[in-house]
Write a structure and sequence with these properties.
single chain; alpha/beta; D-Maltodextrin-Binding Protein, domain 2; 2 domains; eleven-stranded mixed β-sheet; two-stranded antiparallel ribbon; 9 helices; 13 strands; 27% strand
């Protein structure tokens, strides 16, 4: 497809710099940071490659949560964002298809009557979950019988599960694989209730740029670039290349 690169550059940047909002709470996409706080990982590298292809300089803007990134949509605080593509967020942001995905599941007590994913959504059950995370947004749309106890941040959701003796803790499987080691008599459920679709988003006003970014993401999957990033940052087996659109 032929693109008007000049228009794309003007939509994404007014000064030759691409500002990329990065979710620092996703430990699979941001695996480390430099001494000055600059994030390192799959997500920053995807932003860097996009900037390189458009001959733009890159400025990474760290955020503590995806909800805060979404809140700043339309406020001219970032040009692209690398977060989970969810319907609520898509009301304000144009997303590409996913370049990577992460399974979300539940942690429960070892003696829990909950033995599979389906058992969680029952009357009388309460799920602890980090507010405005992609999997929390999914649960808000899909849980019919259980109650959700939302709180700010993953650590607080873990604390609530423990201290309030809740029935299940929702989270990304790789993160919960570490959490289960710290909570006595706990276990992870097999399977997953959803996969967080990690994508690149931009303003809905950026019509030409949105098309370009969509093709960019597909090309990065087909070429093996995303898979190489997963291997480079040692998150293979935890982060998967998303299917082609």
């Amino acid at each position: 497809m032929n693109y008007n690169i000049t228009k794309i550059r003007s939509e994404l940047s007014s000064n030759g710099v691409l500002r990329a909002a990065i979710n620092m709470s996703n430990i699979l996409l941001v695996t480390d940071k430099m001494s000055d706080g600059t994030p390192i990982g799959v997500s920053p590298d995807m932003a860097q490659e996009l900037a390189k292809n458009l001959n733009l300089k890159l400025e990474l803007i760290p955020y503590s949560s995806p909800g805060e990134i979404s809140d700043d949509a339309g406020k001219n605080k970032w040009d692209i964002c690398n977060i989970g593509a969810e319907p609520q967020r898509a009301e304000k942001i144009n997303f590409s298809s996913a370049y990577a995905e992460i399974q979300a599941t539940y942690l429960v007590k070892s003696n829990s009557t909950i033995s599979n994913i389906e058992d969680v959504d029952m009357d009388g059950k309460t799920i602890s979950v980090a507010d405005r995370s992609a999997y929390c947004l999914w649960l808000e749309r899909n849980i019919k019988n259980a109650k959700l106890l939302t709180t700010d941040g993953v650590e607080n959701s873990v604390d609530n599960f423990i201290n309030k003796n809740l029935d299940a803790l929702a989270g990304l499987r790789p993160q919960l694989m570490e959490t289960v080691k710290t909570i006595n008599d706990s276990k992870l459920l097999e399977g997953y209730f959803m996969s967080v679709q990690q994508a690149i988003g931009t303003s809905k006003e950026n019509t030409e740029a949105s098309k370009y970014i969509a093709d960019f993401v597909e090309n990065m999957k087909v070429s093996g670039f995303v898979k190489n990033l997963i291997l480079k940052h040692k998150v293979d087996g935890k982060l998967s290349v998303a299917k082609l659109a």
